[in-house]
Design goal:
Three copies of one chain form a homotrimer.
Chain A (H helix, E strand, L loop, with lengths): L2 E6 L3 H13 L2 E7 L8 E2 L2 E5 L4 H7 L2 E4 L8 H13 L6 E2 L4 E2 L4 E2 L4 E2 L4 E2 L4 E2 L4 E2 L4 E2 L4 E2 L4 E2 L4 E2 L4 E2 L4 E2 L4 E2 L4 E2 L8 E2 L1
C-alpha cells in the first residue's frame, strides 16, 4: 500500500509535481492545501482540501508533505511553509521522477523534488526543499544549498556551488567551478 | 502485424523521423514520397517510391501518412501536404518516440511527431501537424497550436501559448505565461 | 565476467565517466592513472594505482583503457595519451551510457565516451577519442571529427561538421548545415 502525501500549493508547479508523483507511484496524493476560497476545487483530478491553518489536523491522518508552490522572484513562501511543516512534525520526502537520473554517488536532502528528465551527476550534494526542475543538469562535484530552484533545462557545470536560496533560471548555463549567490536570469551565462 | 505508413519528404528531418518510427516499432514504413527525379533512391534503407501526384494511388494500399518535410522559414509546404492528405482520406497518426515522455494529462492532435528525448509535461495541448523536436521541453499548462515547429532542445515554460504556424528555434527559451506569435530565433529568449 | 579497464586522469570528468561505466556495467575499473604524488588516493571508491610511466606494466594485466582527462582549452593532453595508449597496444572501447541514445544508423569511433542523457540521432559519425558530454544533442547527418569535446547540454543541429580537435561549449547551439572549426563558447550560438 502506498503512503499518503499532501501537497502544499495548487498552481502550475503543482501540476508538474503531481505528474512526477504519479509516475513515481510511491505516494497516494490525499489532496492539496491552498487558499480557503479554493477549497473544493479540482487540480488535475485532486481536490483542494484545506488551507494552511488546518495543517495540524491534516497531520493526524497524513504524515508526508511536499511543497508544490513555485519559486521565481523569492523563496519566502517555500521557506515559511517548510519551517511550518517541520514544526508540525511532517516528514518531507525526497521526490525523484523515475525519468530523472540521480547518481548513487550523490546526496539529496529532505523536501527536494527532482523533476522529469533531470540529471544529477556523480558527487553532487543538494540541500533541503530545492526544486531541480524538468531537464535540469547538475554536473559532477557541484553543491546546491538549501531552498534553491534550479529551473527547467538549466545547466550547472562541474564543481559549482549555488548558495542558499538562489534561483538559477531556465536554460541558463554556469561556467564550471564557480560560486553563485545571486538571481540568474533565464537563458543567461553565469561566469 | 504492424500497420503500414508512408512518409512525405526524404530530407534530413525524415532521417530523424525514421529513427523514431523504428524505435516506436508500431508502423511499417512502406516508402517515401518526394520529387519525381528522386524516385528509386534510398533514404536510410527505405526507397523513394512516388511523388505527390501519386498519393491517391498510394492510399489504396496504405492508409497512414506522416509529413517528414522540415519547417524553418515557413510551414507552407507542411500545411499544403496536410490538407492534401486529409482530402485523400489519409489517417495522420500521432508519432511519439518511446524515448520521449508525454504526460497522461496532456493531449496531442493528429499528424504531430514527438521526437527522441522530448518532454511534454502535464496539462499541455498540442495541435495538428506539429514537430516537437529532439530534447524539446514543453512545460505544464502550455498550448502549442497547429502547424508549429518546436525545435531541438528548446524550452517552452509553463502556461505559454504558441500561436498557429510558428517556429520556436533550437535551444531557445520562453518566459512563462506568455503568448508567442512570431518567429523565435535559435538560442534566444522569448519574453 | 566483466572485462577490465583502466582510466587515465582522476579529476572531475573522471567522476562522470566512472558513473557512466558503473551504469553501463560492462567493464570492471581496476584503477586510475594520474600523477605520481596522487598514487594511493581515492576517486569515488577507486584507487589511483600508477602514473603514465607505468602504463606498459598495467597493459600486462589490463588491455582496455579510456581517457578521463577533461578537455576545455586544449585537447593536447588527450591526444598525447591516446597516441601513447595506441602505441602500447591498448584497446580503447567506445563507452556509451545506457541512459544515452545512439541511433543504430550512426557510427562512433574508438575511445569516445557518450555520457548520460546524450542523444546521437540518425546518420551521424563521431570520430576517435571524443567526449559527447551529458545531455548533448547531435542531430541527424552531422559529423564530429576526432578529438572533439561536445560539452554538456550543447546542441549540434542537423548536417553540421565539427572539425578535428574542437571544443563545442556547454549549452551552445549550432545552426544547421554549417562547418565548425573553432572554439565555441558556452551558451553561444554558432552560425
Amino acid at each position: 500500500m502506498k503512503e499518503k502525501i499532501v501537497l502544499l500549493g495548487g498552481g502550475g508547479h503543482c501540476h508538474s509535481v503531481i505528474d512526477v508523483i504519479e509516475q513515481e507511484n510511491k505516494y497516494e496524493i490525499i489532496g492539496i492545501i491552498d487558499k480557503k476560497e479554493l477549497i473544493g476545487t479540482d487540480v488535475l483530478g485532486y481536490k483542494i482540501i484545506a488551507s494552511d491553518d488546518e495543517l495540524d489536523e491534516i497531520y493526524r491522518t497524513c504524515k508526508n508533505a511536499i511543497i508544490t508552490v513555485g519559486q521565481i522572484e523569492t523563496n519566502h513562501v517555500r521557506v515559511k511553509l517548510f519551517n511550518k511543516l517541520k514544526e508540525l512534525g511532517f516528514n518531507l520526502p525526497v521526490i525523484v521522477s523515475p525519468l530523472a537520473y540521480v547518481s548513487k554517488h550523490s546526496f539529496i536532502d529532505e523536501g527536494t523534488v527532482v523533476m522529469h528528465h533531470a540529471l544529477i551527476n556523480a558527487n553532487v550534494k543538494i540541500g533541503k526543499n530545492c526544486i531541480v526542475n524538468s531537464k535540469a543538469l547538475i554536473e559532477h562535484d557541484s553543491i546546491i544549498e538549501d531552498y534553491c530552484h534550479i529551473s527547467t533545462a538549466s545547466v550547472i557545470n562541474g564543481g559549482v556551488i549555488v548558495k542558499e536560496g538562489n534561483f538559477f533560471g531556465s536554460n541558463a548555463t554556469s561556467k564550471q567551478s564557480i560560486v553563485i549567490d545571486n538571481f540568474i536570469k533565464a537563458g543567461s551565462l553565469a561566469k
